[in-house]
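User: Some background: our group keeps a shared notebook of sequences we're curious about, and every so often someone picks one and asks for a predicted structure to add to the entry. Today it's my turn. The entry only has the sequence so far, pasted here. Could you supply the structure so I can complete it?
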Amino acid sequence: MGRLALFSTMIMLLLRCLSGVMIQASDVSALMAFKRGISRDIHNILGSWDPSLATPLGWFHVTCDAAGRVIRLDLSNEGLVGTIAPELAELDELQFLELKGNFLVGHIPPVLGNLLNLVSLDFSHNFLSGPIPLGFDNFIRGKLKFLRLEVNSLTGPISWNLGFVPLYVL
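Assistant: Of course. Here's the predicted structure to add to the notebook entry:
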C-alpha cells in the first residue's frame, strides 16, 4: 500500500509540473504571436525572445511571477512598428500591458477585454484606429484601474461600464 501511495504522489507531481510547462508554453506562444505582428524593431528589443525556451523568464521587457507566468509586458517608447496580436489575451495572468509611445497601427483586439487580471492597460501615443472594443466592458468584472488610450485615432463611444476606470482617451 505504501508503494502505491508513493507512486500516485509521484504521478500527481509529474502531472502538475507538466501542466505548468504547458501553461508557460502558452505564454511563450502568445508573446511570439505578438513578436510576429511587429514588422520593425529598430532597437532589437525583442531579440531576447527565444521560442525554444519553455518559459519567458529572462526575456527583456517581460516580467514573470514565481510560477513563470507572464504578469507584465512593458514595451513602452521602444519604436516598435506593427499591430497588437489578439493572442496577447492568452496571457491570463497579465497585470500590466504597457505599449505606449510606439508606432502600433490597426484595431485594438476586442479579446483583450478578457484579461481580467489587468491592473493597467496603456496603448497611448500610437496610431491605433477603429472603435474602442465592446469587449472592454469585461473590465468591470476585473481589476483594471488605469486605461490609457489617448493620442490615437480611436472612434466611437466609451462604454458607461468603464466609468469606474480612470480613462485617458483623447
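Suggested note for the entry: The two ends are 68 Å apart (CA to CA). The longest strand covers residues 70-74.
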